[in-house]
Amino acid sequence: MNIMIIEDEAKIRSELAILLKNALYDVSLVEDFSAVEEQVKPANPDLILMDIHLPGRDGNELCGAIRQSLDVPIIFLTSETDVMSETNSMLMGGDDYITKPYHPSVLLARISAVLKRSGRSKADATLLKYKGVSLDTRAYKVSTDNQAVELSKNEFKLLHYLFLHQSEVVSRLDLIEYLWDNDVFIDDNSLSVTVNRIRSRLAEIGVTDFIETKRGVGYKI
Predict the structure, then answer these.
(1) Which residue range or ranges hold the Response regulatory domain (predicted)?
(2) Domain shared by 168 and 112, yes or no
């Protein structure tokens, strides 16, 4: 599921991106606010998080403009707390209205609820399949036709990231930043340990050579 963030404050935009990536969403960022609509359509997001006050543009008006060409859920995330502002935003087509500061768990719950209401959060999206291996994104399990094994949080996140980039070589740096973006420093060996643990889990269900090592670069499936 891809979520687009339309937020002009770089710090908030970065915090939201980290939160959503850790929740296993793909994230698209708008950083050029001169032509937002032109960036939305090719990204084809499953949901948009949008501030009301944007450079040279009112978020309510932008919501209406997006609605004319794309049927996508829109959640307003704003510091505006008055009832009139919320009413106007909902009348312009907003699906939800969340005020800052937000609690991360509440925001994620509201995003999930809007996705379910919109019909975009489908059961089959929770099961990823590649080369005879299935990854259950709800149960944190990897399986073949008749065997399954549970993964730890980081094992799951790493394998999920590789599933999202099937047949692509993912660099070690990208994986380290994705898994441990809240830490100041992580020993490069931690990534190798995690990959080896995943390989051991896969071996338990009879899967070998699923994760390839591209020496000096990264990994691919």
Answers:
(1) 2-115
(2) no
pLDDT at 124: 46
pLDDT tens per residue across span 42-69: 888 899 999 998 998 888 888 888 888 7
Distance CA 12, CA 15 (A): 5
pLDDT score at 47: 94
Question: Do both 9 and 112 map to the same domain?
Answer: yes
Provide the angle, in degrees to the nearest 10, between the axes of the packed helices 104-118 and 10-22.
Answer: 70
Average pLDDT over residues 162-183: 82
Same domain, 72 and 132: no
